[in-house]
Amino acid sequence: MKSKIKSISKVEVKHLWNDPHLNFEWNLNSDVNILAGDNGTGKSTILVLISSLLKGTFDDNLNEIVKSIKITFDTGQHIVFENIEDTIENLEFRAKKDKKIKEFIQQLKRDKGKEFNKIESLGFNRISFESLHIQPNQISEIIGIDYIKTFDIRLKDKNMAEHILEQPIRTDLDIQITQLQTKYLNYQVNLGKRAFLAKLPTNHNIDEKINIFKQSINKLFKSTKKQLNPKDNYISFIQNKIVLKPFQLSSGEKQILIVLLSALLQDDKPFISLMDEPEISLHTDWQEQLIETILKLNKNAQIIIATHSPFVISHGWGNKVSQIENLIKSK
Questions:
Q1: DSSP 225
Q2: Under a CB-based contact definition with an 8 Å cutoff, are residues 305 and 35 in contact?
Q3: Alpha-carbon span 103 to 106, nearest angstrom
Q4: What does 92-159 look like in DSSP terms, one character per residue?
Q5: Would you state the pLDDT for residue 140?
Q6: How do the residues of the chain divide into helix, strand and coil, expressed in percent and rounded to 5?
Q7: 163 pLDDT band (50/70/90 cuts)?
Q8: What proportion of the chain, given as a percentage, has pLDDT over 90?
Q9: Sign of dihedral through CA atoms 213, 218, 221, 223?
Q10: How far apart are CA 72 and CA 94, in angstroms?
Q11: What is the pLDDT of residue 73?
């Protein structure tokens, strides 16, 4: 399945927080987008809505805070979620032009039988990827999606996590690192296969992105005298000749490791990278270098960040900032 989609160009939300007078509209850049605003203004909500629609999933809680959301891509194609509430008469009229509504009405008639005629109005959720000519679960075949969460939440049942993952798991970040470790090993194996199939000379630097990743991590961790362990195909660190596993890092160190490792594993492909307040627990110097370092690892990533940190935008990203208060329109 082929597509030229590389990024999101527009996000539209109607009836935000179930308020019929509040609508959100955001025109996005193809590279970096920073959604800024005070706590409680809805930044995280917007990112969750975008991620949920991209993945084709909505739960009941989200249905209660939004009437519809439409994501338009740089190709002009779009995907839509709509919480529909209408009379049967209007829905049957709309079904003449809307395949999803038609299928819903037909299924309802089969389920209800004669009882269908007693229904006057109803509500249901409609998710449409028809513009892309795919099913919701196929979008990963068109463009990569990363929703990177860096909140270090302590697990309630750490024993179960350790049993499943066979690692000293304590927090949500530990789970993410464990999963990324496996992907990192597979990534290195695939690089070797590519070099072999392409018959590249032995001096060809196919590991360029891995080297950038390692140099970036070592530079960021320099003040604590931690360096990536060069003898480990997984990720571990050397500090004063002692080997440290990622689970022994601080919350901030785990966060930056997850963000940069995710960017590396995107493999320079078009990716939509959503990050909710990635600056949490990060030193201000790390916040300032965050966006630039991500783009070094994947220049084809569209970065969408929700933040209220001035340090994230301090290195020339001011023109990429949108204040959420200016994107919510009251009518």
A1: T
A2: yes
A3: 5
A4: HHHTTT-HHHHHHHHHHHHHHGGGGGG--EEEEEEEE-GGGTS-GGGGGGTSEEEEE----PBPS-HH
A5: 83
A6: 45, 25, 35
A7: very low
A8: 53
A9: negative
A10: 22
A11: 96
pLDDT of 153 higher than 70? no
| H/E segment holding residue 85 | strand 78-87
Compute the average pLDDT of residues 133-149: 86
Let me know: does 41 contact 324? Beta carbons within 8 Å.
yes
Q: Residue 115's Cα: distance from chain center in Å?
A: 43
Give burial (CB, 10 Å; 0-12/13-18/19+) of 310. middle
C-alpha to C-alpha distance for 67 and 18, rounded to whole angstroms: 7
* pLDDT tens by residue, 5-52: 999 999 999 999 889 899 999 999 999 999 998 888 889 999 999 999
Task: Assess whether pLDDT exceeds 50 at residue 112.
Answer: yes
Q: Which residues contact 295 (CB under 8 A, 6 or more apart)?
A: 31, 32, 301, 303
Q: What angle, 0 to 180 degrees and rounded to 10, lies between the N-to-C axes of helices 251-265 and 172-197?
A: 30
Residue 166 has pLDDT above 60, yes or no: no
Of the candidates 166, 192, 183, the one whose C-alpha atom is nearest the C-alpha of residue 245 is 166
Q: Could you give the CA distance from residue 255 to residue 250 in angstroms, rounded to a whole number?
A: 9
Indicate the length of the chain as a whole number. Answer: 331
| DSSP β-ladder status, 328-330 and 226-228 | unpaired
- 3-class SS of residue 214: helix
Give the tokens for residue 16. Answer: 């935000």
SS3 195: helix
Q: Whole-angstrom Cα distance, residue 250 to residue 246?
A: 9
Report yes or no: 256 and 312 within 8 Å, Cβ to Cβ: no
Distances (CA, A) of 198 to 165, 203, 230, 265, 267: 35, 13, 26, 20, 17
DSSP annotation of 28: P
Q: What is the pLDDT of residue 165?
A: 47
What is the mean predicted confidence (pLDDT) over 131-149? 86
